[in-house]
Give the backbone structure.
Amino acid sequence: MKSTDDSLPNLRSSPQRDRRNQWRVILCAFVWAIFFVAVTLGIKKEWLPFGVSLAGVTATSLFGLATVLAYRRFLHETDELRRKIEVEALALAFGLGVVGGLTYWLLAVMGAVHETGFAYVFALMLLTHSVGVLIGRRRYS
Amino acid sequence: MKNRLKVMRAERDWTQADLADRLDVSRQTVNAIEKGKYDPSLPLAFRIAQVFAKSIEEIFDPEG
């Protein structure tokens, strides 16, 4: 007789479609990150001629756009609880990003930090989103 | 909102994974609904009622 008391959530049991969409997002984000790092290095170290740099920036933007579209598809097709968890995490990340970004901007106006450090705000948003998803999964399990 | 999902699932000897497959949702969703941590949307509530061949009121208690 099968056990019917499954108190622990098991993410492996999510529909096949969700896993496929998740992997698509991860793959797009990975390629985007690789391009971003490679193009940034290439431009900073002056390894790339202007035309190649421009093509690299364009390709990076396109992979970024592909990641956004893949994530949108994941959100659209995933089951409703997971969508709720993701949306709550996005709201948290967006809110913290706005507050963090404006605070950073004020500090930059004061001269306390460099304006070029704005990338940290995006890193904060990504981190907040990940933490938000983890908190959501715990809350609903 | 209270519900009889766990009892009805057990009556049919289904695991949470079995029910999740039938509803096309994750097992985490079934688990959260059973524990009352998450209230399903109206379309999902209808699917649940359809799977168990019951009315929504027989499964979910809004007063709970």
Residues 67 and 126 of chain A are 14 Å apart (CA to CA). The two ends of chain A are 25 Å apart (CA to CA).
